[in-house]
Amino acid sequence: MIKKLLTVSIALALATSTGFVFAQGNTGAGKEKAASCAGCHGEDGNSTMPGFPKLAGQHQGYLVKQLKAFKSGERISPMMAPLAMGLDEKSMEDIAAYYAGQKVSRNPAPALPADDEDDDKPAKTDEEKKAELASLIEQGSDLYRNGNISREVSACVACHGPYAEGNKPAAYPALHSQHADYLIKTLTDFKNGARSNNRENVMHMIGKKMTDEDIKAVAYYISTMK
Fold it and tell me: What is the pTM of this model?
């Protein structure tokens, strides 16, 4: 019961928060306007490059919020800012509606990157690598669902849902099937304060209490969620 404390407390706080209301965009117009986004995010919002986020199936309100943040400078990105500057609010709604209507693709089976191996130690066998990856994903699963009470790390499930489907009324993003590399970068940016455009800076408050291993574990786990 005590292990669920962080999940329950933050969920109760969110229950009293005010949701966001966004106008519906035109998906047909959004597809045309999103053509310039395909190079990084994929034609249907399923980026094949792990450093760029998948946008397919993401909540419209969340996408509009991020585009506005890029445009205003609230969220810093030398790549996205110039693109967002050329969009009016209707275009943002149309693009967001298009991506929200697409289906996010599943990721291939995860694998530990080669740079995780220590050159001074004997190479790990395939079985050792498999066991290490399974342990990492199990650690990420526990952190996602239960948090870490000793370090006051809140459970991800409270805001992002049991299946990482997010919270549409509150404009909390869906995370399932997102690239692990992108999630690691994003959580690290929240942890270091490089990104802060979220309500009451809650992600920084959570991220700064996470270890690098926590971030890696939960990112790998989320990337396997469907």
Answer: 0.87
